[in-house]
Amino acid sequence: MAAKPDKKEAILEAMLDLIVERGFHDAPMSVLAKRSGASAGVIYHYFPSKDDLIHALYLRVKSIKVQSLLEGYVPGMSPHDAFIHLWANAYRFYREHLRETRFLDQYENSPFCGGAPQTVEEDNIRIDALAAVPQDGTPRPGGEPGFDQRPASKKKKRSRDNPAPEHAARQGAIANASARPGFGNKKKKNRRG
What does the pLDDT read at residue 1? Predict the structure, then answer.
């Protein structure tokens, strides 16, 4: 007896195709039901709303991307090799997964992106991958440059009111120059004579 295809996977695949072809707002559930071979009731059984379906699809595509980026990664790689390896994998992902790339581009530039749920597994994968990449140059116990592993709440925040020191000096110089009398009011000389 042949195994039944997973309805949830069929729904996600059909939704991916539909969004890539038509966009988020022109992807009605009736067309999704026809393409996936599942009734609207089955779709709503797995996903309470269209937004939940889109977020679930995002998490699925994002996990495919993360797996592709980390393919062949070894924790003992030098930072240079890890960097080259990561970017080669990124290039390969964008060349081989065109539908997923188009979906991510649409999703990350839409209002849906603000409410994207993140799973603990995704955060752990991201943290493990970044642990090998030197960020601040501080030495690890083994003598290698390390990743700034302080929690985000402990890191210095940059904002318009609290810019980086080099930017603050530049902004101060611009403000002083613009406060001089006649700044920006110079008349151009007529070159004809």
Answer: 41
Is the pLDDT at 101 greater than 50? The verdict is: yes
Residue 132 in tokens? 């090998």
What domains, with CATH codes, occur in the chain?
7-139 (1.10.357.10)
Judge whether residue 140 has pLDDT over 50.
no
Q: How far is CA 138 from CA 142, 143, 145, 166, in A?
A: 11, 9, 5, 21
Spatial contact of 129 and 70, defined as CB atoms under 8 Å apart: yes
Full DSSP string of the chain: -PPPPPHHHHHHHHHHHHHHHH-STT--HHHHHHHHT--HHHHHHH-SSHHHHHHHHHHHHHHHHHHHHHTT--TT--HHHHHHHHHHHHHHHHHH-HHHHHHHHHHHTSGGGGG----HHHHHHHHHHHTTS-SS-PBPTTSSB----S-GGGSPP--SSS--HHHHHHHHHHHHHHHSTTTT-PPPPPTT-
Residue 148 CB coordination number (10 Å): 12
Q: Residue 57's pLDDT band (boundaries 50, 70, 90)?
A: very high
**Inter-residue contact 33 to 43 (CB < 8 Å):** yes
- What band does 119 get if pLDDT is binned at 50, 70 and 90? low
Please answer whether residues 14 and 29 qualify as being in contact, where contact means their C-beta atoms are separated by less than 8 angstroms: no
**Which pLDDT score is estimated for 110?**
82
